[in-house]
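hey team, just a heads up i'm posting the complex here instead of the shared drive bc the drive is being weird again. everything in one block, sequence lines first with there labels, then the predicted structure for the whole assembly after. its two chains so it's a bit long, scroll down
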Amino acid sequence: MDWELILESIPLLLKGLLVTFELVLLSLFLGGILAVPLALLRISRNPIAWMPVYAYIYVMRGTPLLVQLYLIYYGSAQIPGMQDSVLWPFFKQAWYCAVFAFTLNTAAYQAEIFRGAILAVPHGEVEAGRAVGMSPSLLYRRIILPRAFRIGLPAYTNEVILMLQASALASLVTIRDLMGTADAIVNRTYNPWDIYLPTALVYLIVTYALVWLFRKLEYRLSGHLRDRPATRVLAGAGPEPAQAGLR
Amino acid sequence: MIDLHGYGWQLMQGLGMTIRAALAAILIAILLGLLGAAAKLSRWRWLRGIAETYTITIRGVPELILLYIVFFGLTHLLQWVTSLFGYDEYIEVPPFAAGVFSVGFVYGAFATEVFRGAILAVPKGQIEAAKAVGMSPFLLWRRILMPQVIRYAIPGMGNVWLVLLKATALMSVVNLDELTRKAFIGAGATRDPLSFFLTAALLYLMLTIVSNLGLEWLERRYSRGVRRA
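-- predicted structure starts here --
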């Protein structure tokens, strides 16, 4: 182990980590904005609404993200008229191509998560909303979407983690994210061990920090699902009540 | 619109390599998955610890970096072994071995969880009954556990297969001539990346569709004995 090189690389790697964060958060956010309408269209009974969305989701989930990324990064310049359009300043930069590819990809996965979550909202709650005379939009805003958000949270955690892992692919289109920074240092020093192992460790730590964070969030959002302390004692449950009845 | 400039055959060869690499990797993943599940359910603590470390590490690190680590690791190992025999030239690990081994290694962790769940899904009473009639551990495994574990594991392993299939695209970074790399080469040679990556995407999509059909068939076949509500 070349400790000097490792110590020297740490600030660079952390700078790369910031780029990774930026990439992942931006893609997740934009993908999430796209995913809600996609999920609603996917649930619709009108074939004109759900069939194109179904096809979109199937294609996005059925092809490698790497190929999607290459297609956008290398292929976009060839689209007729692209180089003269207002979009060109964006598509000629690797950064926007990566954000665009990741956004389209995660939108498909998130739409599936939201769809499953919306369908999992107990029917009685929807009926109760209708019974008190809520309009469809109010019903969605007050009952269905908040409930779906809570139900979909564990799956969403998973998607965040998968997106973090997938973001390493951006290094293959010249982005200096955590992985890209590591590659650059390895290319300069030809010392893969001392760079890739610490980099892997950084990813590992960030992943489990995220898992921990989302678990806290889940716990906070599930107060109504947990037993009250008194009933817990009566039921003879153990002293560790965390997450009871959640999974 | 799509013109492959005579590189179509190259892409088909790439497709063949992708299929072969994916099949080899899923075999490794299944093997590691069975071993991992057995270790996780073992009564020895250190064995459980190893399996736990394996799945936790794999799920927290991007495949790409694991691919590099395995690639450089195997190269190192190979060099060390050959240097023992007095051979000091630089040798690189064959891309097929590096790619298949690392992807198999990664998805072995996911397979471990699938098999663990499948084994736990077999009712305990059946295992006790088998022991009660005096079955040896091997017979119990073959006649009682395995047939049911296969059925319970098919949906989960189907998912692992679908994800693994797409992950083979990463093997292009260690220069394995699979579909993505062939498309990359064709795109560079003809300056027509749109056609090449679109074709590659369509071919991957085709693999996914065929896999989905195959998995549906498998699921039906292995749940013949189960009554449907």
